[in-house]
Amino acid sequence: MNDNNQNNSEMKIIDAILSDTAKPASGRTRTGSRRGRGRALRPNPPSVSENQAEVQGEAKAAAAESAEQQPAKAPARRQTARRAKPRTAAAETAAVSSETAAKPVRNAKNASQKGRRGGKTAKKLPTVRIIPLGGLNEIGKNITAYECGNDILIVDCGMGFPDADMLGVDIVIPDFSWLEKNVERIRGMVITHGHEDHIGSIPYFLKRLGTDIPIYSAALTIGLIEGKLKEHGLLSKAKLNVVKSRDVVKLGCMSVEFIHVNHSIPDAMAVAITTPAGLIIQTGDFKVDYTPIEGGPIDIARFAELGQQGVLCLLADSTNAERAGFSESERQVGFAFENLFAQAGDRRIIIATFSSNIHRIQQIINMAARTGRKVAVSGRSMVNVVAKAIELGYLNAPKDILIDIDNIGRYPSNRLVICTTGSQGEPLSALSRMAAGEHRKVSVTANDYIIISATPIPGNEKHVTRVINDLLKLGAEVIYKSMYEVHVSGHACQGDLKMMLSVTKPKFFIPVHGEYKHLRAHSQIARDMGVAPDHILIADIGQVIELDAENMRQAGTVEAGRVFVDGYGVGDVGSIVLRDRQHLAQDGLIIVVVTIESESGAVVAGPDIVSRGFVYVRESEALMEEARLLVKRVLDDCQDKHIREWSALKISIKDQLSSFIYKKTKRGPMILPIIMEI
């Protein structure tokens, strides 16, 4: 189907949906996706390096009954949200307003002032505050707090990955300082879906703020969170609650309705937050897919119903705001796989994709079953996700089609498909190890047909190209995005974003989930769709945004930023440490070791000079000898001047040696003097 025909068909569907939403709600109950049991793969501990590209790639490359539930008080590890008698969002707002009055938030410019109007005192409108603590002007680390009255609600708690200059840093998490100061007011956390940039910081959050805060999300997302908490020893203490689309959870003066959306992982949901000030919708990561692999199309009807009732503010995914048109259906990749499997002939097929893209993996399994092939999974993160998806019924694998990677030698090449991590060329991923000839079970040959079912993340192109070149040198045929349509994005393009704005009709709009250029592009789309320019805000993390029924205004800032996780250390690596690491990486290190007599200050031994990452000593003996003699002269001069303090000696050595080295080499290695006394 060409783009024009596809767009025309999609617009007809949209018109039908919008005309249907003008009718009263039918009261049908969504039962959710099928949940079955299957044989699970043997799980292994997760790998951060394998998850990294998954998160960034997704970010850069790309029920009819409402319910009400009180927060769970029992310490049960996993609970299911309770359905309640349906209420409209407008009715919910009125009820919430009467139950809990929000505390007034003073603002010098906009605060309500008492005055006489017709003999009556002006009434203060209820307010709600939106406080993004991550996910704006950056990719990843998504977390947003909502504050009204004495209550705080948290949406998502994700991690980010380090930039190239953050040497030695494993992951980046949000700064929880403001939340920690207000922990007694936090009523709960809701999670939109199970990608690392939305769940990756939960263990660190619970370790710092305590495990009494209930967490609500869909079954697969909760399952993935359980795996992370088990790894950190927190599973038995956490309060995890399973919800379904159109469930409603009451958290303090706010209530949250979960709404089904499409994304590159099952069980993705938007949240509609009813507050005393009005209804706020946060889409989470989403796209519009009318022919999804699992779970049904996005619940546009519910978004339209809420739009008719009145949406105060919309916060929407901006990742693909620069892409024209509509996002493509995941089924398009399935059609490509059908052709590629036929082209592979009798060769072994190896497919690299994101480990969390269960829909993609399902299509690989389906094609393998149709062509009589077995499927082996390689890469720890993919093994774990596939096992959990089968356990919860999100992945349907016919009996005996999945085999352990250790057993691939028992089958001929024309009966094998290997599904692997490494679509972004990560150095430690399974595909990279195959390309380097270092994989313990898979040796790539000319009899392999390799499909990279992903788009390279900006900045990862060199890594992906290196892997492709290495695979080609081994004789394999490699298929990738620029050659064939083997990947579609999980994020909404401009057409989808316009649809969301048109059906929700928000009074105010805040673009989220993206770098500044994405947020700016999305804000322009909102203007084109009729949102008033002064009702659109491109915010930043830590900014406090206060809304009432009539106004949106900036109301100060809170502590926000990045916290670096390096091994077991959380927050003990700062800008100074990173600067030192960059210095070491760029220019190397020179260590000067000298022993002096404590009373006279005379040099007893040394100075000896050791170099690491600066020059190869055996090829630079003359330079090292000159440096050694220079240090000796500096020490003799200090002795003549009766300088005995170690700090003064070290400064003199560093200053003189730095000048000498730069003059000789135009480089500035880190210089570390070590002085010992006897």
CATH homologous superfamily identity of the largest domain: Ribonuclease Z/Hydroxyacylglutathione hydrolase-like
- Number of E-state strands: 29
Percent range for helical residues?
Answer: 25-40%
Mean pLDDT: 80
**Count of helical regions:** 18
Q: Which ranges are low-confidence, i.e. pLDDT below 50, for 5 or more consecutive residues?
A: 20-78, 80-119
User: Cα-atom Rg, whole angstroms?
Assistant: 29 Å
Q: How is the main sheet built? A: 9 strands, mixed
Trace the largest sheet across and list its strands. Answer: 1-10-9-8-6-5-4-23-24
Number of spatially distinct domains: 3
CATH topology of the largest domain: Metallo-beta-lactamase, Chain A
Shape: globular
Top CATH class of the largest domain: Alpha Beta
CATH-derived architecture of the largest domain: 4-Layer Sandwich
Percent in strands: 15-25%
State the end-to-end CA separation: 84 Å
